[in-house]
Specification:
The chain is mainly β. It starts with 12 loop residues before the first strand and ends with a strand.
Amino acid sequence: MAAELHPRSGKLIGLSNSNRTARRNQPVQEFNHGLVLSKEPLRDRDVFTVRIDKKVNSWSGSIEIGVTALDPAALDFPSSATGLKGGSWIVSGCSVLRDGRSVLEEYGRDLDQLAEGDRVGIQRSSRGELHLWVNGQDCGAAASGLPPKLWAVVDLYGKCTQVTVVSCEPPPPSAEKETIERDEEVDDEEEEEEEVVVCGVREDAGITALMNVAAMNGMMNGDEVPELSCSHSRPDKFPNNLEPDTVLTEHQLFDVFNNAIVSFYRSEDEGGGEDGGGGGGAADGGSGGGNAGTDTSSRNDRGSNSSGGGAANSDSGTGTTGGGGSGSGDSGNTNSSPASNGGSGQGVISGGMTTNDALLFHEKCGTLIKLSNNNKTAERRRPLDEFNNGVVMTNRPLRHNEMFEIRIDKLVDKWSGSIEIGVTTHNPNNLDYPATMTNLRSGTIMMSGCGILTNGKGTRREYCEFSLDELQEGDHIGLMRKASGALHFYINGIDQGVAAAQTPGVVYGVVDLYGMAVKVTIVHNHNHSDRLRRNNAIMRALSPDVGRPRPALSLTPDPEGPDRLLFHPNCGQKAAIIGDGRTALRPHATDDFNHGVVLSSRPLRSNEVFQVRIDKMVDKWAGSIEIGVTTHNPAYLQLPSTMTNLRSGTWMMTGNGVMHNGTTILDEYGHNLDRLKAGDTVGVVRKEDGSLHFFVNGVAQGPAAWNVPPSVYAVVDLYGQAAQATIMDDMVDLPPLPEDSSEGPTAMSPGSPCSVGGASTTNDLRFHQLHGTNAVITNGGRTALRQNCRSEFNDAIVISNRCLRDGELFEIIIQKMVDRWSGSIEAGVTAIRPEELEFPNTMTDIDYDTWMLSGTAIMQDGNTMRNNYGCDLDSLTTASRIGMMRSASGDLHYYINGVDQGVACSGLPPDVFAVIDLYGQCVQVSITSSSGPLDNSLCTSNITEKSFPIHSPAGVAHRLHSKHGKNVVLLGEGCQAVRVGGYAHGIVFSAKELKADELFEVRIDEVDEQWCGSLHIGLTTLSPPELPSCPLSGLSPSLPQLRTKVTWLLCGSEVRRNGVLQRQNYCCSLDRLTVGNRVGVKRCSDDTMHIFIDGEDMGPAATAVAKNVYAVLDLYGRITAVSIVSSSLMEDMESIKAPSLSSDSCSEGEEDSTPIREVEAEPCVLVPTVMAFLENHGKNIQLSNQNLTAARVSSYNQGLLVTAQPLARQQLFQFQIDRLNPSWTSSLSLGVIGHSPDRLNFPSTACCLKRSAWLLQRDSVFHNSLKICENYGPNLDTCPEGTVLGLLVDTNSCLHLYVNGMDQGVAAQDIPSPCYPFIDLYGQCEQVTIVTNNMPAVGGESGEPRCQGDMEKADMVDGIKESVCWTPPPEVNPNKTCEYQALCSRFKDLLTLPDGYFNEDAKYNLCYCESCHKLRGDEAYYKRGEPPRDYALPFGWCRFALRIKPHCEVSNALKKWHIAYHGTSVGALRRTLDHSQLLPGTSSIFSVSPVKAEGPNGYSEPEENSAPGREVPRVRLSPTMRYSGMEIFAPKVQFQDPRSHRCHHAQVGFQVCVRPGSYKVGPQTLGNTEPLDPRFSNSEIEWITKEQGGTLLYGLLIRVE
């Protein structure tokens, strides 16, 4: 058979290379219509093989391959291969479909994962089976019963865009032999897994190879190789002569065992025992041999016979054998294992029959369940309407040690709760299915959420760290009843431990598709990760050093470093290990961003630094490398897509935070890993004391976690941008670890939680590493939290790491609370040392040497000794501080928010430890510094002295009052306020009443984007000294609700009095404020309230304001921290004086300068200045030409740039597009921002700017990423090279866009001053240059006119420029990039009109599509001729200029004619062009109508010299193509675009010059009567002429739909 493709193919396919190569056209725009078939039908055993030549990343899915009985010569090709019917088998991904319906899931290799260069083939075997071949490897039978005449099918779908046929021939003999042997084995289609019985005397090739290796090693060592006894189903012990030595390394043995006995044995915990074992039939049909009748128990569940004869008896205890074969049936042994889980394989029954005992779903199920896929898949119907009645059970009881595993296929977001899984003793045939399985009150054990329910009641509240409610689609859940009766659950292959100790012997698996869970599928363990775990179990059983850390496996061990740190060969799906195990990489880093997890080959030793260097980065993704440690052995770990998804035994540094088991424990830890570049290094070390430290470029980042267990493996996650990393062995450059980790490192990187500059001493008080069961210590021992806080309320006692000194304050801050429980934190002291304390459920259970405060009660040794103490711990909220101090006299004092509550009790012994019980509502606390400032990296707002440096400049006249909202903390002597929790309760007051004309002003220091809303500011008559003591739990949560006294405030842009709206749109909204903005309030002497934003007075906001008022602020929503910046009164008064003429207060380049407003005078205006780009820009931008030229040097985004100077009012900022790259889609965008760009953190694209940003993108206008206007100006994506774009803000604060010097109108209003223009070099646009030759502001004297050529008076009528005869200069003509004009041009070429009819200068060809006419700035209507008459531009059409006769060109009379349009047919074009004018009787029948003298229209007069009844031909014209272009005048014709092969409809017409007086104006005579054009009435829309020579053809018009 010829290795060629059939010439007929999908409509987007192009064939080449003698029909051996197929390519899908338009691969980025289209993902289907890529079907190709073989030229001839397949011969049996021929493998039709193609090579993947090219892939793109635009789509999901990839190549699909299969066979079809449909003849390609007569086939109507569908869009994809899965649409083929009538006998078609297609392999798509890892599924097999027949006639579009799935018949087999999880088959063979996943075709979507194949890369360029991989080969894939399809074969029909001589038995009529379908086989898939990938890179020369047979994936087994995919389907059977295929008809004899089949064509190969290849679908270039999704990512796959080009393939080449490489061969069509039978496979090589070696590969075919393996296939034949495998075909002769029994492949149980329902079990989907190959299992083989091993006997010591069996002549199997794999075992023979194994024994030969063992014998070879034994003989080389001079030892004997003992025989394997037939009485054992697997060797439990292997002799020491199989230990790896110099003859065969461990790695080589590992490979031999993997290839020889991939699935033969199970690990110890999967059953069998020493008494198991029985003979098994030979898989290749040979003799099974052996002692057939001697076994009293068998690991087989079904008997098997060899081809030598003998019957299989599935009911007897032992099988009957014959002809040397051996068989066994169900022995009744409760310790037997199924074939699907480590037992012996299914044997071949005489006569070729196969057994079928697969684990499936029972046909009887819940009322809403639908079963499919041979009862392997269950789906709940109406998932958006019903949430229960989705119970399914297995078709048979589970065997001991048999894994019942399902995969979650589909979830919905509508309900709470999700899948539940477990076992039940109820037979599904006799069960009346309940709505949910937890309603069953007998014989049922279910896992629900993260707990265990027995007979519907909770028996274990927190069984594992995983919650079934949090699992996603694709996750696996399994369960297994061990032979001992213990029930275990597995999540994604990880054993969660014993869920129930004693489970009945006969149980069915049960799944409840509840709530979010909609669809699941039973998974049979045949995937790669399961095989890897089994192979490793084999190696663990064969290895004499079980449990010891294994050195790195290498074919050439390094004798100098046998224990060298390397990467483990078991790595993520998209990762690879190279360089002798020292380098890890993601080979296709631009295609995938995750599945790049790699682990060290052995556990880290204490104080051993594991450090890697980043070798390669890609710019495509967000995020980057992550590093950490895990307790999981890489040999047995099913690697997740990202390591932070692992919920047990894992600590990872990601970004600049630290995560433990997928939960963030440190928000701001150290240097941000996402900002690292190629060549940077990261490292991790576990110290002997159990603390975990990270390094970035050799700089220690401080302790990240405590109590990390020993024997942890290093982990590197090549995530996002990180593509390759190499282990660094040279530790010379690393600084030594600090001796005392509790003190923190001496050299800290910026942002380290311990890097508090200037601290002379360090508080060494920490939480002790010993604590209650549910407590977790993080943040270097300074933070304690209760895990599982919504399911556990106690067992969370923490204690200080040392005794308290006399007079020493131990203070903590409450950081997190839940509202689920009653009761809250308890605090006190104990004389019991932590090492001697057996931590109880609650500390009040201790009956000796303990003093505690619980609520308002003081308790000693568990007994209440005093009630109604000065404070109530149960009433404290987030951000409250609690302190304990033992005085020198032995008295215990409590402090609440720094206030001493008095003596609680006396007579305490000298050496006491501080105790905190995280009970009930209290979840998380952190130790504060006794000197006042907090030292807490976990707090929501990261309130530390290093986060908010305290600056108290001389002249700052104001302070904040000590009375404030309960979520506020004051720093810096009352100059700074920080909201530490929630979004409200952030009200603060000025310390004193404001004097007349005294400005109270603050600067915004920090915002939190997770909240909405913003700062509120105003004046209030409420006197803070009259408020109760802090914290002010009774104070209103937000300022608009403060109504106890009269309060005037600004909320957003609204002015309110006591919450009642007084005025709208007072100023720009406070919601736009961000870090660095200033806002102030002033009560003026005229009793008005004025608001100042960035120093600019917004005018009077309220009148009749009382005299005795305080300034009031509300740190609400986004705004979390402010600091006072207002100066003294005298300085305020001086600042409002007008500057002198020599003053340079508005000089160029002054940082953060604000125009100074003169009292009762106009503000200082920015003067036009030379513009240049700012050095702060997107990371892919490179500046040149004195910062006037900007180019994007890589990728398609990260190209934001902004001007260094603000844009003055009426100043036109212009730049030119220098270079476009057609490889990308979309193009530049531009706009202005209303804040200083000096510290702007540039996002990847301009559409991510969401604060005070106005953006022009395509033909739309956006404000803060929200679209506010559509169809504005031209589509910026169509601007060609050479286009000059400009921005201008007029005196009314309106933003204008200029295109080639033409104003496109107002784009946005209320633009603040100052504002800065920005440009986003996105997609096609790669370089721009600022135009510097247009400095004068708009409205002054302009320079050269935009259009070249002499302008006649006739060209300008009523101030409107004629643009039909005069076009823009060639350099700004967008024609060369207009796809619509190119399409119209291709249609014109199909008309085969002579080129002599058309003007040779293409610049006179104009496209009137929406983008082009907006780009030129065309008006819709113009005037022309003498006398002037209106005409409309032909929007939607494309004009091709016709050649005009020379005598007409030089005649000025032509410009005095009027412009009109004439619709015609394609057939009449040539005759019309031949005469160069519209002649009666020569045009189409639609345009020249024979009309009687007495016409029906009423306005036609009889011709003077005509006889009654004579027909006079006349030509219809119109001043608008909306009439002449109607289909009745210009009929549509269909054509196929020669480039895209798509079909379109086209119309044609003419633009003509008409001599005035040669036509009559009248109403429309044809078509509908609805108004067609707003400028022309239907009574004047038709012009009639009968004069020859009265019209002159000016241009051919074409419109394509």
